[in-house]
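The instructor's notes for this session suggest beginning with a concrete chain rather than abstract definitions. Hand out the sequence below and ask the class to guess, before any prediction is shown, which regions might be ordered.
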Amino acid sequence: MPPQPLGAAGRTAAYGLVLALTVLLALWGAFLVPLRVGGVLLPVSWVLALGGNVVLGVVGGRLHGKAGVVLPVLLWMLVAFTLGSRREEGDLVVPGSTTGLGFLLAGAVGGAVAYGLHVSRAPSPR
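After discussion, reveal the predicted structure:
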């Protein structure tokens, strides 16, 4: 039996999941910025930011069009930049180092790639 298309409620629920995963991706990536193994810095957060934003943006775009691509990226940037801001207590999750700035840049580029893929995608015949 072929898969049935999602109704409005199903698309909304799926998009809610995309937004929840976006927040988790930003949190997880932010805490992985300083990851070191044997003293060697591993830019795993860059891969997560770039790849994750592309995937979540493409899925969001298929669910809700252009706005579906843009909202996850803006949400990711809100969380990531908030974690990159020093609090009154002095806490800072994403430092202003090369790795931290690379993480923020990779996330923004991932969102731009997702938007470009959505805009360039030919409309599907219905």
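Then share the key points. Residues 32-120 form one domain. The chain has one domain: 32-120.
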